[in-house]
């Protein structure tokens, strides 16, 4: 009825303006109808644009609109996708999938975050509220709800393959941006819509070096998935070169946690995909030799070594973890309330250290630099428990797909590599808070949603014995 009503209004308006010879208004109505058709029929195109554009060219329109409160292009597209999902669900015009255990666990976690945020509103002024909404929206609602959005679309294996190819191109674009920034100090791609930290390190189109490196490590994993399934030698060589370039981009971000996350993801692949074990072992040896030979030629090795041996961040984290433990003990069930400054506002009374690492190491830092402790501080053990259950549901979904012999080899392979991507994100959470991630978490959870509903587009006779030919 809603769809019928919409098109009835469009038709009547068009007839009226044509009858009145108001051609400008008639053209506007036709344009509105065309936009409506595109939105209804092409949500997958919008979703892919959302994923590919965020780390690349969205920086330009976002910089132009940097003076507009809260607006960024990725937030606008997310709201469009969310609205389309709700409209298509209510009108029964989209993919009909009842909520499963994965989605209920996600909604439970998101619900706890929203409720926790609402309890803090009476104590905050408007400026702080806007900051908290941006954090909640960008770093939690967008990533987690992207699973629901992806699951309401029809993803064939060919769709996913094309999407993976676009993500590889995105990764190469990020490497190029990082090279221009790191070696030539070109700042064309630096965002102005939010604060950029980590001066002297490569941040690309992101606000910090951690997300730049983590995103590239994730895109390298997805490129490695394509390399595993490719047959054409030239395509395999190109994909391998792209993967190597992305690992190089991770190195020039001069940050340790993306490398640890990448290593964890590769370990998952090594355990889950026997086809690539010998390649990974050989690649590790070749990569180490190459790094020893090439890195001194292109990087300041003294600065690189000093960065990776720096102990101050470790001392900071030890004191922050101890302080956070005190805060969790004081607010065990529901935490201090969700907000960007929740930890820093409450921590003064609980500052402490461990052994020779004194409380002063935590005094000037506003977040604990460990995602799961931070969530426990803000939302208590209730929020942390829901977080763990939602993450566990994602892991179980991917493992079930990868172990199901009834699914196609292509789908099982993608599930293994997306699981590696998820593990990389989880491991990164041991070193950073996800308020530093505006994109990487969205990429990971969107891929979880895509993989959970991907269907073969090959005849059954071929699905049983072959991967999708991709080169």
Notes on the protein architecture:
The structure is a single chain. By secondary structure, the protein is an all-alpha fold. Helix content is 71%, strand content 0%. The radius of gyration is 24 Å and the shape is globular.
Distance between the termini: 46 Å
**Uncertain residue ranges:** 460-466
The proportion of residues in beta strands is under 5%
Order of secondary-structure elements: HHHHHHHHHHHHHHHHHHHH
Radius of gyration based on Cα positions: 24 Å
Overall, the morphology is: globular
- Classify the helix fraction into a percent range: over 70%
Main sheet record: none
Mean pLDDT level: 87
Which class best fits the helix and strand makeup? mainly alpha
Tally of alpha and pi helices? 20
Task: Supply database-style keywords.
471 residues; mainly alpha; 20 helices; 71% helix
Which secondary structure elements does this structure contain, and how are they paired or packed?
Blueprint (H helix, E strand, L loop, with lengths): L1 H18 L3 H19 L1 H11 L5 H6 L8 H18 L10 H19 L6 H26 L5 H28 L24 H21 L3 H20 L3 H17 L4 H22 L2 H9 L2 H19 L11 H5 L13 H4 L7 H33 L5 H20 L11 H14 L6 H4 L8
């Amino acid at each position: 009825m809603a769809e019928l009503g919409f098109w009835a209004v469009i038709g009547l308006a068009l007839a009226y303006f044509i009858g009145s010879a108001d051609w400008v208004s008639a053209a506007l109505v036709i344009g509105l109808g065309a936009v409506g058709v595109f939105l209804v029929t092409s949500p997958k195109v919008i979703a892919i644009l959302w994923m590919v554009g965020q780390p690349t060219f969205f920086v330009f329109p976002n910089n132009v609109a940097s003076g507009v409160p809260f607006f960024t292009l990725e937030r606008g597209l997310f709201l469009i996708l969310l609205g389309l999902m709700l409209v298509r669900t209510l009108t029964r015009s989209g993919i009909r999938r009842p909520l499963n255990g994965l989605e209920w666990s996600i909604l439970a976690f998101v619900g706890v975050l929203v409720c926790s945020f609402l309890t803090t509103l009476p104590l905050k002024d408007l400026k702080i509220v806007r900051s908290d909404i941006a954090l909640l929206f960008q770093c939690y609602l967008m990533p987690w709800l992207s699973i629901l959005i992806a699951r309401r679309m029809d993803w064939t294996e060919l769709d996913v393959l094309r999407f993976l190819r676009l993500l590889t191109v995105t990764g190469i674009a990020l490497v190029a941006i990082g090279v221009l920034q790191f070696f030539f100090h070109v700042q064309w791609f630096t965002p102005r819509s939010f604060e950029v930290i980590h001066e002297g390190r490569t941040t690309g189109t992101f606000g910090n070096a951690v997300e730049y490196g983590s995103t590239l490590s994730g895109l390298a994993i997805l490129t490695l998935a394509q390399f595993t399934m490719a047959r054409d030698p030239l395509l395999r060589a190109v994909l391998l070169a792209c993967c190597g370039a992305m690992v190089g981009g991770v190195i020039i971000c001069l940050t340790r946690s993306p490398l640890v996350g990448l290593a964890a993801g590769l370990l998952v692949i090594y355990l889950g995909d026997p086809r690539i074990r010998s390649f990974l072992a050989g690649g590790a040896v070749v990569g180490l030799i190459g790094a020893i030979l090439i890195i001194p030629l292109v990087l300041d090795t003294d600065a690189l070594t000093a960065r990776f041996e720096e102990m101050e961040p470790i001392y900071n984290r030890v004191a922050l973890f101890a302080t956070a433990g005190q805060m969790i003990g004081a607010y065990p069930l529901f935490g201090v309330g969700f907000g960007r400054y929740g930890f820093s506002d409450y921590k003064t009374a609980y500052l402490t250290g461990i052994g020779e690492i004194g409380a002063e190491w935590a005094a000037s830092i506003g977040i604990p630099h460990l995602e799961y402790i931070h969530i426990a501080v803000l939302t208590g053990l209730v929020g942390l428990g829901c977080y763990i259950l939602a993450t566990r549901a994602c892991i179980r979904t991917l493992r079930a797909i990868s172990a199901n012999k009834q699914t196609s080899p292509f789908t099982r392979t993608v599930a293994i590599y997306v699981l590696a991507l998820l593990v990389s994100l989880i491991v990164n959470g041991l070193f950073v808070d996800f308020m530093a991630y505006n994109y990487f978490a969205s990429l990971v959870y969107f891929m979880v949603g895509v993989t959970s509903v991907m269907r073969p587009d090959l005849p059954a006779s071929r699905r049983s014995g072959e991967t999708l030919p991709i080169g």
